[in-house]
Amino acid sequence: MARRIVTAEDVLALPEGGRLLATDDMTVTSAARELARRRNITVVEGAEAAAAPADAEQAAQAAPTGAPGTIIVTAVGVNRPGVLSELTSAIGQLHGDIQDVSQRITGGWFNAILVVDIKRSGQSFAAFREALKGLSQPRDYVVTVIDERVFTAMHRLG
Q: What local confidence, expressed as pLDDT, does residue 23 receive?
């Protein structure tokens, strides 16, 4: 099951002094937690969130559901002909829209980062992740797929 990511933008949608119900299928970013603290929003997690009364569920609805808009795909491994083609073909078959690509070959090693828009693909984040990770082969290359919102939260300064 795909996890829902709760970002600072999601916390802004909640009323000040309210509650954020973070069930087990949700990940609350550190920026979201900090903003919730500053806005006096209580973050209720785990079993307590699942058992919260129905009227409090409004807070959980602020968390994004479904497919994210953009994913970050990385591939790192031994360089050989066709690596980038395999990756871009798989993205194309899933109807992803490649927005940006950076590829580098260093000392026989292949490294690529792709920014892919999946909003109009009709595919979930989980479908993309599983299909692209399926390209990974031992002693060849490894593919990692991450929601752009998580990537951005991980690399935010300050």
A: 80
Torsion, Cα of 58, 63, 64, 66 (10° steps): -80
* Torsion 9-66-133-75 (CA) sign: negative
Q: Which helix (H) or strand (E) holds 81?
A: none
Alpha-carbon span 27 to 57, nearest angstrom: 16
Please list the residues that pair with 44 across neighbouring strands. Answer: 21
Residue 109, SS3? strand
Q: Are 147 and 71 in contact (CB under 8 A)?
A: yes
pLDDT in tens, 19-55: 888 887 788 888 888 888 888 988 888 766 656 654 4
